[in-house]
Amino acid sequence: MKERLKKRLQLTPVKITFLVILIVLLLFSLDFRFLRFMELKSLDLRIASRGTQLSGSETVIAVIDEKSLSKLGRWPWSRATMAQLVNMLTAAGAKAIGFDVVFSEPDESAHLQTIDNLIHEIKKSGIKDENIIYLLDQKKAVGDADALLVHSIGRAKNITLGYFFHLSRKDVEHLSEKDILEKSKLISNSRYQLINAPRKDAGEDALIHAYAPETNLKILSQTAANSGYFNIIADSDGVMRWLPLVIKCRGDYYVSLAVSLLQQYLGWPPLALSLHEHGVDSVRIGNIKIPTDEAGRLLINYRGPAKTFPHYSIADIIEGKIPSESFRDKIVLVGATAVGIYDLRVTPFGPVYPGVEIHATVIDNILHRDFLIHSGWIKFIDICAIILLGLVAGFIVPRLRAVSGIIATFLLLVAFVVANVFIFAYFNVWLNLIYPVLTMLAVYLGITVFRYISEEREKKKIKDAFQYYLTASVIDEILKDPAKLKLGGDKKELTVLFSDIRDFTTISEKLTPEELVALLNEYLTAMTNIVFRYDGLLDKYMGDAIMAVYGAPLYQPDHAKRACLTALAMMDELRKLQDKWREENRPALDIGIGISTGDMVVGNMGSEMRFDYTVMGDMVNLGSRLEGVNKEYGTNIIISEFTYKAVSDIVTCRELDWVQVKGKQKPVKIYELLGEKKDENRWGDLLVAFHTGLSLYREGRWDEAIACFQKVLTAWPEDGPSRVYIERCEKLKTEPFVQPWNGVFTMRAK
User: Fold this and answer.
1) DSSP codes joined into one string, 152-212
2) Tens of pLDDT along 585-620?
3) Where are the domains of the chain?
């Protein structure tokens, strides 16, 4: 029974294929957020890849651009200017004019306030000359910019005013119920005339809901022929792909600016809204059916980048520089393109696209019935594509070798992508791209991994046998070439890094065994991760010490650089840990690091029964000695002169000393590693002063050297090497030294 169950549960390429298809279909039905995001990005690429599409000639845009702001002043302009614009467009024969701006506040001109003050003062003073009062009232009437605009709108009879909805409750907390009702009355002309719904609250959850409108002045709203909201709601990534044609507010359904303006242009056909239980079924303007999603959003079929539609500067229009033929029988949208007015949106064509041109695009889409199709029946095709492509991949991949399988899957994927892009470009049909591609890739990867596991079972056994005493990289090399299991090694130029915790014995005496282990594990984990970050070989732990090798088992030409960057990263990470430990009232560990570069013997060292992959040699010992030398100078990172030669162009160092380490007869120059070359300005003159002092020290000019080191300490009080050299100079001034003086220091540390 168990064997039969085990056999049934055992994976096969067929089972993997069907499992992948089921998982992808589940993700598709749940509309998984990340994959939805990827699909939207692929849609953007398809739209952008089509390039500029031919748009209709019915719509033009009068723009508030930088040129207009320069000539007419900063925005908002006087209503007198807007009245002049309306007059010019009306005279030019514009058929419908829409404003992608809102005039919600009165135009309070300074001279009108002055006239009001004069009338008040005359009445207050007791002057009863009615002629003066009449003349002032006349002047006030002439200067009333709002009245001028009302007059222009009334005479034009083809104006659609824009407004916007507050979609957040927080935005309307300051408004009373009465205020909201009054504002709602002002936009009654932008409601859908015909509503077809199975019940009053049909599609409630899918629709976009608003709390209150931000309307134009009452006198303007009552005079205009029509109105419509200009809200554009971005997707979660900030890109404008949809425009809501329906927004519900306080039980009524309202029309967008684009649809309202188009209604006027087409001679006032009725606006109809059909709802079903799950949302919007359709939106109609006359005999034009507009496809939307259940939320009532139209997928925008962008014609191209900004200025695909004609842009005319309002300054040029008012100055009469634009021929009247440019506006005759046209839909004219008035909106902003200037950067400072903040009506620039992110679209598939880039981050700088005028919001007013989005409305122009929607008008053009509807007028020419040129819609992007992404309706319910498309989802059925998407499901079929997921299943079919998954099955095809599941049939092909198991029957081919690895390389052939990759090629076949790639060709299948390319064929699908090309077909998808072709259908989009020539038929305006948006078929899902990501889910079918994911299905193919997942089937290929699943079957490939299954085959790999099956075929590599013996190698896995070898790996399991050696993983406890060899590093993974060495095991991989052994699997490639079993001959590497022999004892012995090769001579290579490598870099070795030693790090050790200072005063660890003292610290350990103050902690319980559990506390000590936790502290040490936290430290070693952080440092080991950094070694691996720079592809170092963790040779071994020696209590609290770490030994790492760079350049083996796989050769790295920049092994010295990797070691130095590892050391700098270790110190950065240690400072973060020290802050954390202090907050936790735990000992703040400090470390010393020594780095040496040179010829070393690398390979398997040990006995026939047990061996280890490591490095040996004089340069390895030097690295260990340099780590201990940090205590002598109060430093953290010391590198040898051989390492310095390899990294001098990428890191900042200062020469510390010329020392004779224990076990070596020939003196070695050592350097303190300070940071990367890009940060060299941090030390600047201090390095110059230190090096000057070091030169004077080697010349036996003790007092002058002390003065230089004191200068360093003045700006850098914690500088250990300067303190060391001051002590040496003071001692050498009073004690005899070996002649001739060569500046070599014999290192007493191990």
Assistant:
1) HHHHH--EEEEEEEE-SGGGGTT--HHHHHHHHHHTGGGB-SEEE-SSTTTTTTTS-EESE
2) 888 889 999 999 999 988 776 655 555 678 888 899
3) 2-53+374-455, 59-363, 486-677, 683-750
